[in-house]
Amino acid sequence: MGVSRLWPALLALLILPVPGEPQEARISLPPGFTISVFASGFDRARFMAVDPRGTLLLSDPGAGKVLALPDADRDGKADRVVEVVGGLSRPHGLAFQDGRLLVGDADRVVRFRYDPATMKAGGPEVLIEGLPRGGNHPYKTVIVGPDRRLYVSIGSSCNVCEERDPRRAAIMRYNADGSGETLVATGVRNAVGIAFHPVTGKLWATINERDWRGDDVPPDYITEIVEGGFYGWPYCYVQGGKVHPDPEYTNPQACARTTLPTLEIQAHSAPIGLAFYTATQFPAEYRGDLFVAIQGSWNRSVPTGYKLVRVRMKDGRPQGIEDFATGWLQGGRKYGSLVDVVVGADGSLYLSDQGGGVVYRISYSPAR
Predict the structure, then answer these.
(1) Is residue 68 part of a domain?
(2) Distance of CA 146 to CAs 172, 198, 202, 326, Å?
(3) Burial of 315 (0-12, 13-18, 19+ CB in 10 A)
(4) Distance in angstroms (rounded) separating the CA atoms of residues 229 and 186
(5) Residues near 356 by beta carbon (within 8 Å), at least 6 away in sequence
(6) 3-state secondary structure labels for all residues of the chain
(7) I need a labelling partner for 321 at 20 to 30 A (CA). Which of 72, 133, 141, 309 fits?
(8) How far, in Å, are 6, 196, 270 from residue 67 at the CA level?
(9) Per-residue confidence at 298, pLDDT binned at 50, 70, 90?
(10) Whole-prediction pTM value?
(11) Does 289 reside within a domain?
């Protein structure tokens, strides 16, 4: 049985909510910040996007739906849940292209006409089809670049193996109409989150590295993507800035051309969604910083992750990484499984938790 099938069952066993206790009560944040439940009751809350009117959209692959979470009265809680589109196989990545909604589904990218007034989508048009589906990493993330082209991340089918399809463990680029398929980066085992830096225009990604090599081997990483870069998987990995061969697969030539990642992080911590903070609600020192949702380990002897981290940025380069929101892991007990983070129209951060079926809102209010 693949990890993709095992994960929901393992998650259900690992996450142990405390009855009657508000989920946000255990979360620690820097002074001035507060967290609240924005919406709940989802099967599997995954990736998010903000529509042209500022409404938050959420993919729920467990239900095969894309949902809208309007907050018309701006009280910090979704007024209702609107089904934008249903009947999808495994909707994941969401993006907008000239007002139209893009959805990364199991083996395709679909474009819909979208009405922000009704929050309904229709007129589906398959832009990209025949993408590799299934395997250990079945989700497809799609974003629109500053060049107006589409970028799609496709995870590996396995933990460590030699893929038959070169689009596996890769980031792809397409023209706006879905033509012109091009490999942007390879050897990225599972680049779940992808985003463009708002100033430099460079593509960044979060990479979940291989399992079963040890508690601290190899590091996961957050990296600026080099066009045409090969990042090592499956033949090698990078630790401490040095390239190491995988014990099962040997290919010295591949290891010799491996691109070093920008920022190594704790092995098996599972970085997923990422967002550069471009709003003005938070203090000025947060402007341009990178927030990353750390989903958390599932096979490490001592669990790690289960938090939101901040990567301090300067001139497009990371200056350090620090915990921003913690508390989903306490005393070995897990209380959530974070997936995505986006900057909302109100300047708050919105954080999806597939383990708890929740979307959180993190906001800032200066001390009076």
Answers:
(1) yes
(2) 15, 9, 9, 33
(3) exposed
(4) 6
(5) 15, 17, 23, 40, 45, 335, 336, 337
(6) CCHHHHHHHHHHHHECCCCCCCHHHHCECCCCEEEEEEEECCCCCCCEEECCCCCEEEEECCCCEEEEECCCCCCCCCCCCEEEECCCCCCCCEEEECCEEEEECCCCEEEEEEECCCCEEEEEEEEECCCCCCCCCCCEEEEECCCCCEEEEECCCCCCCCCCCCCCCEEEEECCCCCCCEEEEECCCCCCCEEECCCCCCEEEEECCCCCCCCCCCCEEEEECCCCEECCCCCEEEECCEEEECCCCCCHHHHHCECCCCEEECCCCCEEEEEECCCCCCCHHHCCCEEEEECCCCCCCCCCCCEEEEEEEECCEEEEEEEEEECCEECCEECCCEEEEEECCCCCEEEEECCCCEEEEEEECCCC
(7) 141
(8) 25, 24, 25
(9) confident
(10) 0.94
(11) yes
**Is the distance from CB of 136 to CB of 157 less than 8 angstroms?**
yes
Does 359 fall in a domain? yes
Report how many domains make up the chain. 1
pLDDT tens-place string over residues 22-45: 478 899 999 999 999 999 999 999
Domain contains 2 = no
Q: How many CA atoms within 13 Å lie on the side-chain side of 15?
A: 23
Cα separation, 241 vs 217, whole angstroms:
13
Q: Which pLDDT tens digit goes with each residue over 84-109? A: 999 999 999 999 999 999 999 999 99
- b/e map 19-49, b = 16+ CB within 10 Å: eeeebbebbebeeebebbbbbbebebbbbbb
Show the domain range for 76: 32-364
